[in-house]
Amino acid sequence: MVTMSTPPEARPTPPARRRLTAALLTLGRPLLLISFALYQLEVRRNLYPRDALVSHIDGVDPLRMLFVGDVAASGHGVLSHGLTVVTRAAEHIAVDSGRGAEWSIVAEPDLTMKKLAHRTSYGAQGAEVAFLLLGIPDVLLSTSPERWAAQLETVVRRIQAESGLRAPRVVVSGIPPLSDFRPINPTARRIINQRVDRLNAASADVADHLPGLSYVPFPTWRIGDMFIKEMFSWKTMHDAWGETLAASLRPGT
Asked: What number does CATH give the domain 16-247?
């Protein structure tokens, strides 16, 4: 078998790659809108907790938290609030702190960073930590990294001001690799992955300069070239994500 290498002059230059990426992202908007329509259909049809909301874990001085997010914060895919990423994170944090925990939730399946930035209240009074679990609708609606970054900064500053505390911490989570959740057109997969990466990079950039904000990547479920998604369940996703969020508050992280 003969392997032919690409001559150096035929390889795309970095500017050419950037133009190609920009063109692909622009042409992919119709595909993303189709994906968003399918997403809305799925979130309406899927399972959500049916039991009473959990919002408190006993302790001597419960750590007060706020969770804000889209479909995962709503408990997508599980039937009990005790199995959600919110509750799993709170349980780990309560054990780590030895204080217990209490929390409030702002969750809508189609919540975007723009919608969140336009809210007049977050229920953040007294919150020592706030977790932001957003991004899936923004990816599918083609939110630009620049808008995402500006809106994220607005949200963080407003939550910190509303908390009334001197130094409340805000954690913005990486966006889940939503193209892994179901079979998807290869072109759409590439576009979605690029948009996820761009918004995550924007979150990390904002966290680099905004006091009190930290960025935490979404936990991986890859093992080499294999996907843990072959054993995937919504419960395992909520568990892994909750553990990752809690770990971000541990000393040294």
From this structure: 3.40.50.1110
